[in-house]
């Protein structure tokens, strides 16, 4: 997504005495604006996903759209900054399940957790479904960690016979994306569909 041609709001105005604010004050103001943008983006991406516009994010954050683009040159970059924390949390959750004594229970429990989290959070759904969003370097790294940890859970479950041996991590990704794309926002958690998929993945 290309950056809009919006005049940058460089700040640097004067205070009531006609003096320019110190560089420290400017840095603090810039940090506040960035934090506000991240906080609002976190909320809007969760409910609306990647479709929300930078103009809307800036408006809700109470900053100029030029300020928003100065901190995050593209919407994908802002989305990536928000998603890093989401995916990092999912990676840590996967690592916990890797220590579980039952590999089969660990894989299927985590598989359900990811689906439930993504359905509750539109941002996670978009990050899993829209592969082009992983152009952001930090997000791409965390996304790689996520699929790597899920692959380890899959391998452990296959090793002890809990998951069919011909299922690949690519298959799991297709199944996850398929569920999320087919799920309606107004529908409840698709327990029956998830159970059918899990039954199909069971080892013989």
What does this structure look like?
This protein folds into two domains: about 25-75, Homeodomain-like (Arc Repressor Mutant, subunit A, Orthogonal Bundle), CATH 1.10.10.60; about 80-200, Tetracycline Repressor, domain 2, CATH 1.10.357. The longest helix is centred in the N-terminal third of the chain and has 26 residues, at about 25-50. By secondary structure, it is mainly alpha-helical. The protein is built from nine helices and no strands. It has helices spanning about 25-50, 55-60, 65-70, 75-100, 105-120, 120-130, 135-160, 170-180, 190-200. α1 (about 25-50) crosses α4 (about 75-100). The N and C termini lie far apart (about 45 Å).
């Amino acid at each position: 997504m290309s950056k809009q041609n919006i005049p940058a709001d460089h700040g640097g105005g004067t205070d009531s005495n006609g003096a320019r604010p110190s560089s420290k004050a400017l840095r603090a103001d810039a940090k506040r604006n960035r934090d506000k943008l991240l906080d609002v983006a976190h909320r809007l991406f969760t409910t609306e996903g990647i479709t929300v516009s930078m103009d809307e994010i800036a408006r809700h954050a109470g900053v100029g759209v030029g300020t928003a683009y100065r901190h995050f040159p593209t919407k994908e970059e802002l989305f990536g900054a928000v998603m890093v924390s989401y995916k990092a949390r999912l990676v840590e959750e996967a690592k916990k399940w890797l220590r579980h004594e039952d590999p089969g229970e660990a894989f299927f429990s985590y598989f359900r957790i990811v689906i439930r989290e993504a359905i509750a959070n539109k941002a996670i759904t978009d990050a899993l479904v829209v592969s082009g969003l992983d152009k952001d370097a930090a997000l791409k790294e965390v996304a790689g960690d996520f699929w790597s940890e899920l692959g380890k859970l899959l391998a452990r479950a296959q090793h002890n016979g809990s998951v069919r041996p011909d299922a690949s991590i690519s298959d799991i990704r297709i199944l996850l994306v398929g569920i999320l794309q087919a799920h309606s926002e107004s529908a409840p958690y698709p327990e029956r569909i998830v159970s059918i998929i899990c039954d199909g993945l069971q080892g013989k």
